[in-house]
Design goal:
heterodimer; A: 455 residues; alpha/beta; Rossmann fold; six-stranded mixed beta sheet; 16 strands; elongated; B: 400 residues; mainly alpha; 0% strand
Amino acid sequence: MRAVIQLDNVSKRYWLRRNRSGELKVRFLGLLHKDRRETRDELWALRDVSITIGQGESVGVIGRNGSGKSTLLKLVAGIHEPTSGDVRVARGTRVGTLIELGVGFHPELSGRENVFLNAAIHGLTRPAIEALYPAIVDYAGLRDFMDVPLKNYSSGMQMRLGFAVAANLDPDILLLDEIFAVGDEEFQNQCRRTLAQFLSAGKTILFVSHAAASVRAVCHRVCLLEHGRLLYDGGVDGGFNAYHRLMLTSSPAPSPVPAVQATALSSSAEAAGEPWHRVTVGGLWDELGELQFDFLKNQGLLPSHYLLDVGCGSLRGGIHFIRYLDPGHYIGFDCDEPLVRAGIEIELARVKLDPARATFIVNDNFQLDGLPPIDFAFAQELFPEIPLTTVITCIAAVVKKLAPGGRFYVTYFEDPNPAETAPVVQPSGVVTHPDMFPYHLNFEVLEVMAVIARA
Amino acid sequence: MTVPETRSGAAKVARDVALALVSYAAGYELRFPASGFHAIHHAAVRWLPLLVAAQIAALALAGRDKRPAAARTIAAVAIGTLAGAAAGWFLFGREGVSRLALAGDVILLCLGALATLPSERRPASDMISPTQLDGGGGVLAISTGLSAIYRYRELLKNLVLKDLKLKYRGSVFGFLWSLLNPLVMILVYLVAFKYIMAIRTEGFVFLLLVGILAWTFFANSASMGAGAIVDNSGLLKTVYFPRAILPIASVFFNLAQYLLTAAVFLPLMLIIYQVRPGPPALLFPVFLLLQLAMTIGIALALAAGTAFFRDIRHLLEIALMVMFWTTPIVYDYHRVPAAWRWPILFSPLSPFVLTYQDIFYYAKWPEPQTAAVAIVYAGVALIGGFALFTRVQGQFTEQL
């Protein structure tokens, strides 16, 4: 894919000036009196950020206030220049900057004159504007108002007009800065529809926002900035998980549970956002696996039920079930034999459980023969690791084995793009997986899969 | 939205070289010791190309150096001045190495060095800086600036029209009010000079009018242009477009008013004084263009300066006040004693006013020296203004 935007080790420093000597007089006085002199502090808005964006990608930039998102956008737009590093765009592309709708609008001019002015600010020539003018008027729905001075428009009408011009600009790269923050729902829907059209036309979008819903609807890739550093560059869900983790670790009060967690859980989920490691101190769940254990118990898991743990891995989660269920009622399935073996030898030994209490099946293609009807089946953390076709095979195989009334709990993902499951090598050399935590497939797809499986 | 540039590299370089040659050649008219407009060595004109070539070569050689920009500029200026002084001494003896000539040299070379963008900013690759999307391949700041402005000409037109509409919309007599200003000024000066001080000048009102109109254009452009960047900080922070468009729009706005006012008053004067416009009047567009170039250059320099130091606007007011009196608008140049003529050189508007007076009232061709000085001022102001503006425009958004 051809790269259209490239940032190489970009840093941007602003000077915070005190006693700003915007005047020669003050500068002169500063020579005489030390305390009148201008002092300045550094503010690094961006530090060593490197991102490459290819044509047709839609990238969301998220982060807290002051993390450098708008600065990043303005660097790509050419409004600021980097202190160090390179910002480059592909030669010959048209870059459309939408940091503010209706930039240049003057209240005394009529709607028509403002449209021409605004389009000219964005670099269009007169013939181009005249050709687009009818489309703009239609899009805004303000045909009768075009000769009325802008000061007589309502704020909603002004925004519609501004967005109408922006929507018809047809740039190759679109830079958006939180323009969804204002406006009613209809306006936001219109924005989203227009962006979807841009995307399907193969344009590149760089979108800065706080609103998760907008970013999810538009973007396929997310960059998380914090204090000017790029913390995450990958899939949307992983990005938002990292974002929530960030908010949790740095804010004194725990944030509410992300909606993706099961609402049946009765306790607050501090640990839901905790980083993934063996034993976490603090929070309600001390160990990995306790979360799904509690969850399944809430769903009615009894020791007499049969449980199929799809992708049991090294049994970190399985040990709770093995301990709880009757002997022989826990069936663990995986395709990685050494891992299961390690789990049996290390994990079960650690908590002094007898391996004979559990049954293990290891094979590559979800052959689940010879099993009793399963009451509860669940797949945790498995699906990010495998391609979509394998997911379908898995669901098919498991669903066939379910007892009447049995349930298969899956964690599911939103964008069924096989590439999303591939591990990402970060610039620092660390390998991350886009999704280590719950993510959503939409229910229709799951249902279809289940129907196919039953057939 | 940035509008990408489409021109081959060779054409760009050729264009830049042509511009550089023209500006340097015009600049060297002033290189020789001058007292007023009448003392330029005519013989030296034959040797001008050699001098110009020597200095441009020196600049180019110094420009190839890989050292940092400041050291390179100083080296270029030093080498160029020495080369020029040597050539001048060789050609004209001691006379060619006067202090005035050296001072002129240094100024011109500094401008030339400032005006050439460092060549490492022009990567041949596919990926370029977003501010270069409008065309960053030129060697001279002025040529890239001008081509970017041409591409955004629709914006320029819209800004000028917007200002004009805003000024005249909603007012009852509209345009007539802007005719009142020069009219009143003329009346006041007429009474003061002709009747109170009893200075006899033939065709005083005509000469006065020509001068005042040209002056108003210049002074208003300078004042409005100086504020163009700081007053439009909102625009600058939200979208990218060639920043130079803002001061240039103010200049064109004032140009439009100048032309409209002149279109009313000039025919009036011609009728009242029964002057027949002769062929010299055809030079008006040429000198208008030169005055426009000079004003644009000065507006750009002032806009850049005001972005960093806000009280330049106040200094400008005072400077304009002084400049009004050093320009032969309300008095006759030929009456000024020769020893006192040198301050008139310092007003960049003087050659233009004199030329307009010549071509319209006296209906004679302007003197070559006056025209030469006009060309020099226009070239130096335009190139220098663009150079300065382009050099610092990256810092505007941080200063505002």
